[in-house]
Amino acid sequence: MCRRSQAAAAMALGGVRVLELAGLAPAPLCGMILADFGARVVRVDRLPGSAAAADVQGRGKRSLALDLKRPQGAEALRRLCRAADVLIEPFRHGVMEKLGLGPEVLLQENPRLIYARLTGFGQTGKYAKSAGHDINYLALSGVLSKLGRKDENPYAPINLLADFAGGGVMCAMGIVVALYERATSGRGQIIDASMVEGVAYLSSFLWKSQNLGLWSRPRGENLLDSGAPFYEIYRTSDGKFMAVGALEPQFYKELIKGLGLDPNELDTQMNFSDWPEMKKKFASIFAQKTQAEWCRVFDGTDACVTPVLSFDDVASHQHNKQRCSFIKNDQGEISPRPAPLLSRTPAVPSCKRDPFIGEHTEEILLEYGFTKEEIAKLYSDKIIGFSKPQANL
């Protein structure tokens, strides 16, 4: 998995040059996805020592430290963008325009540039200039109203939905789509990636299925929102959990068999009024065995019952080990392998540690056509920074 240098050119995004302006969680994920699939991603960081955003998703990236607030720094980025394929910009509406780095400027100088703007609320609308976080975007999308248990407030899960799925992943998809179109037209374009709209788009099934009766009951009482006893999480005797998703009748039959119940003594599966009591019955039975014991009961069946794995256990689970679903870098850190798998040009993630801020500043600038004299001047003027400047200049 670590032979990246030999495989990089064969990856799907090999040769694509990406500039990612350092930001919070969604933009770094977007850049990491592109890097995992072969793009040459440069993370443009603030100078070392400034209030820099912590990027724990720097896999496969290089770091260039640059002060964009200074005219010379903004001009340096303009130069970089003339030779780049993609720019990922995570700032609120209007910030790049104030720096003289708006899309109308950069696309005029490089008409092939794909200018991806990843924000919470998008580039237009009442909230375009407002601050927000995952929970706010989730709320405005309508999705938050569907999340939570019966008789409780709506519940925002960990910031995976709006920040990462609706933001980082959707933006990466937009970039790949724009790259595909550019192969025909030769022209770049602006991507307005709103996390509100991204997570709303992810919820299309909820919108499209409203007339099917799946969501006709109050929150927490429906088939897929913790209402059903056969789509629920149960505690085991050792304090761990099992996830149950036995929706279809044939799977439900396997669940009942595994629990040791007599189907003739139970009410019908879809009797809503009986669901609360069925939950109590299932819970009492699951509490009688350990997670490992339940795995021995249900593994190899179609009951749709699986263990709820902790981060400590997930990489060592037999299924995940067989698929090499998790990888380890040269620092011993474990993380998920890039997905999905491509048969001919798979992602080959870097196994090196994440870059230090400014670690590759000189290397990147030379690669993009700056002379050593220009780099020395930018460094002396405190426009750029190095992680180890004494080793370079």
UniProtKB/TrEMBL annotation:
Keyword terms: Isomerase
The keyword Isomerase is assigned to this record: yes
Enzyme class, broadest EC rank: isomerase
Pfam families: CoA_transf_3
EC nos: 5.1.99.4
Residue runs in coiled coils: none
This protein's pathway: Lipid metabolism; bile acid biosynthesis
This protein's record includes keyword Isomerase: yes
GO terms classed as biological process: bile acid metabolic process
GO function terms (MF aspect): alpha-methylacyl-CoA racemase activity
Cellular component, GO, one term: mitochondrion
Superkingdom of origin: Eukaryota
Transmembrane segments: none
Catalytic activity line of the entry: (25R)-3alpha,7alpha,12alpha-trihydroxy-5beta-cholestan-26-oyl-CoA = (25S)-3alpha,7alpha,12alpha-trihydroxy-5beta-cholestan-26-oyl-CoA; (2R,6)-dimethylheptanoyl-CoA = (2S,6)-dimethylheptanoyl-CoA; a (2S)-2-methylacyl-CoA = a (2R)-2-methylacyl-CoA
PANTHER family on file: ALPHA-METHYLACYL-COA RACEMASE, SUCCINYL-COA--D-CITRAMALATE COA-TRANSFERASE
Function: Catalyzes the interconversion of (R)- and (S)-stereoisomers of alpha-methyl-branched-chain fatty acyl-CoA esters. Acts only on coenzyme A thioesters, not on free fatty acids, and accepts as substrates a wide range of alpha-methylacyl-CoAs, including pristanoyl-CoA, trihydroxycoprostanoyl-CoA (an intermediate in bile acid synthesis), and arylpropionic acids like the anti-inflammatory drug ibuprofen (2-(4-isobutylphenyl)propionic acid) but neither 3-methyl-branched nor linear-chain acyl-CoAs.
UniProt family annotation: Belongs to the CoA-transferase III family.
Protein name: Alpha-methylacyl-CoA racemase
Organism: Sapayoa aenigma (broad-billed sapayoa)
